[in-house]
Amino acid sequence: MIQDFDRLGPVIVVLATAGLIFIIDMIMKREDRRLLAGVAITGLAVSALWLVQLMLREREGSFFSDSMALDNFTIFFGFLFIGVCAAVILASWDYMTKFGDRQGEFIALTLIATAGMMLLAGSRDLIAIFVALELTSITQFILVGFLRDDKGSEAAIKYLLLGAVSSAVVLYGMAFLFGVAGTTRLISTDGGPSIADAIASGDSGMRSALLVSMVFLIAGFGFKMAIVPFQMWTPDVYQSAPVPVAAFLSVGSKAAAFAVVLRIFHEGFGVDSYVTEDWKILFAVIAAFTMTVGNLMAIRQTNIRRMLGYSSIAQAGNIMVGMAAVTTASDAGINPSGANAVVFYLAAYAFTNLGAFFAIIAIHNKINSDEIADYAGMGRRAPIAAAILLLCLLSLTGLPPTVGFWAKLFVFNSAINADLGWLVLIGTLNTVVSAYYYLNVGRVMYVTNADDEPVLRTPPYAVGILAVAAAGVAVFGVAPTILIDAAERAVNAFA
Amino acid sequence: MIEDNGIVIAFWILSATTIACALMTAAVRELVQAVLFLALTFVGAAGIYICLSADFVAVAQILIYAGAVSVLMTFAVMLTPAADRHNSETIFQAPALVLSGLLLAVIVFVVLDTDWAISDAGAFQTTAASLGEAFLKPYVVPFEVASVLLMVAMIGAIVLTRELEEDDDA
Predict the structure, then answer these.
(1) What are phi and psi of A69, to 5 degrees?
(2) Contact check, Cβ <8 Å, B142/A130
(3) Quick check: B26 and B13 in contact, CB under 8 A?
């Protein structure tokens, strides 16, 4: 039991830090509470160190009677979520003044959401998955409405109502899965019954229930991933939520949803069972629709956060291509498997989208506007933020020498290996469309002149955090092998 | 335990009541009536739990859902000033009905078509003890995380509804 708690340590540390922040927040004299961010970063660092020592001591394994897994997949996403959370908290430094005396709660809730995501990536039991999903979702509903202005509250209510429906749908899908397997465990290491075993037995009497279950599961998690047709909330929430929360949602929540779907489908439904072809086609069709709808809607946007909202839908479509590209054969390097490409894409997208959102936060703090038209002449007014925003937009488009290029290459490559040529064609056409609206922002920033061009100073901490995101985009753009190897090790956990 | 005739009859009566009440919840226009029908749905579900010999879950269902949650909802409806207490008409009614009908057809087909995993375990002697064991052994992580979840919901409700300090001047 103690060993099991040791394996859960990183999550417990994050939750304990959140608790500590609530307590310090109460006894601290009311003034600037942003020092609490320091406590949060320390807690996240301890959590990361704990993960490192678990790796060094080789504590990988299935624990708490197979309800949780500590494998390379969990560890990879653990580091990803810790990094995203730390970056979001640091980047909110200036923005947090808008929250008045609720800064402590903001930081603590962000930490709890992160803990929920870490649990989600590590759960291999339907009930554990559902509770972790709810922990993440409910925290995020609160964070979206944190500004308590009219637009933010409207976005939060929309997010809450649609989120509640999607949770019910996930639960219904899980009920079908439980009905055919008679257990909630995806995998069992002690010889007991498991969903994977039930499906692998190939009893054709379960087929229709499995199909319904996978449709419901994808629909429910699809809400979190922002895939078509469950994307309605995305633009509103991205536009009206506090900007750091939008950044957190676009990267963390999406990655967590993809992580749990990867685990459910690879461990539960299986990559060479008799239903594999069914979910492959399902993912492929959703990918095609998601990419196309996201990109076509993004073109018309004049608000940069709304545009990034639609862009994140389109990117979810790109990642979906990798989900559809299931092949049993996988070799590292230039020919990664679909799952490997998905994990790589999620990490690449984390750096890229956080960089873009942080540049927007830096500019937003100065001009208090998100209209693309107001970015005119930004290349001269805020050179660093504008340059990094441009780099990230190039990466989102998928142009070399950025990490986004490799992410797209790997995903499309895996799709070709899985005989999904038509999907790659749609993806390529969509990339051309996306280049138009991504590069348009660059044109406005560097070519268009503003009437009045006061130079905006970007504070040093913002430059630092922007530099980290940009370095991720550039370094992994030049040398993607480090990240692709890590992604390969992560998905090998399913093998 | 479904083989017993009495249980089978009870199951059908309870199911019919539960489904009828659930339908009425969506159909009635007065919001307070909808809440009352919802409470009846909860009671019906509790009855089905008893048929499954899950006595503890049934009692919890009646205490929490039929009792606390329905009362809470009634209060929310009563205390919300200026809120429209009727389910409004909407142009989506017809398409929604068609869609729900199709969904129902699909699910009925699937339920009839599938070989479900049927447990041959007998009834529990003491369900509360078994539940406690399940919570603290295989399901300890979800159980503990659920308590964090409840705390988050509570903090969220306070953070989102507490009066803002700026409002004091207004």
Answers:
(1) -130, 135
(2) yes
(3) no
Residues B34 and B91 in one domain: yes
**Within its chain, how far is the Cα of A244 from the centroid?**
14
Note the ipTM here. 0.89
Q: Is A137 exposed, middle or buried (0-12, 13-18, 19+ CB in 10 A)?
A: buried
Question: Is residue B113 included in any domain, yes or no?
Answer: no
CB-based contacts of A233, cutoff 8 Å, min separation 6 = A155, A158, A159, A162, A163, A223, A226
Residues 78-107 of A with CB under 8 A from B: 100-102, 105
**In-domain check, residue B74:** yes
Query: What is the tally of structural domains in chain B?
Result: 2
In the listed set B102, B118, B146, which residue is the last one of a domain according to the structure?
B102
Q: How far is CA A12 from CA A73, A114, A422, in A?
A: 18, 11, 45
Cβ <8 Å between B139 and A112: no
- Cβ-defined contacts of B18-22 (< 8 Å, 24+): B18/B44, B18/B45, B18/B47, B18/B48
Radius of gyration of chain A (CA): 22
3-class secondary-structure state, position A460: helix
DSSP string computed for A212-274 = HHHHHHHHHHHHHHT-TTS-THHHHHHHHS-HHHHHHIIIIIHHHHHHHHHHIIIIII-SSST
Residue where one domain finishes, among candidates B102, B118, B135: B102
Per CB distance under 8 Å, which residues of B are interface residues toward A? 106-107, 109-110, 113-119, 137-142, 145-146, 148-149, 152-153, 155-156, 159-160, 164-166
| In a shared domain, residues B20 and B68 | yes
Number of A:B CB contacts under 8 A? 105
* Same domain as B68, residue B29: yes
Task: Note whether residue B115 is domain-resident.
Answer: no
Same domain, B6 and B42: yes
Q: How far apart are CA A84 and CA A122, in angstroms?
A: 17
Residues B45, B78 within the same domain: yes
| Six-digit token string for A460 | 């040093």
Nearest to B148 among A15, A198, A208 (CB): A15
Same domain for B66 and B134, yes or no, is no
pLDDT tens, chain A, 495 aa long? 788 889 999 999 999 999 999 999 888 876 667 788 889 999 999 999 999 999 998 888 888 888 899 999 999 999 999 999 999 998 888 888 888 778 889 999 999 999 999 999 999 999 999 999 999 999 999 999 988 888 889 999 999 999 999 999 999 999 999 988 888 999 888 888 888 888 888 777 888 899 999 999 999 999 988 898 888 889 989 988 998 999 999 999 999 999 999 999 988 888 878 888 888 899 999 999 999 999 999 998 999 999 999 999 999 999 999 999 876 555 544 566 888 889 999 999 999 999 999 998 888 888 888 888 888 888 888 888 889 999 999 999 998 888 999 999 989 988 988 888 899 999 999 999 999 999 999 898 888 877 666 777 778 888 888 888 888 888 888 888 888 888 888 888 886
Judge if B9 and B68 occupy the same domain: yes
Distance CA B32, CA B15 (A): 23
B21, B82: one domain: yes
CA distance A112 to chain B (A): 8
Domain that holds residue B137: 126-170
Residue of B117, B137, B145 with shortest CB distance to A65 = B137
- Whether A400 contacts A291, CB under 8 Å: no
What pTM, to 2 d.p., does this model score?
A: 0.92
Phi, psi of A381 (to 5 degrees): -75, -40
B155 inside domain: yes
Q: Where are the beta strands (DSSP E) in A47-192?
A: 61-63, 68-70
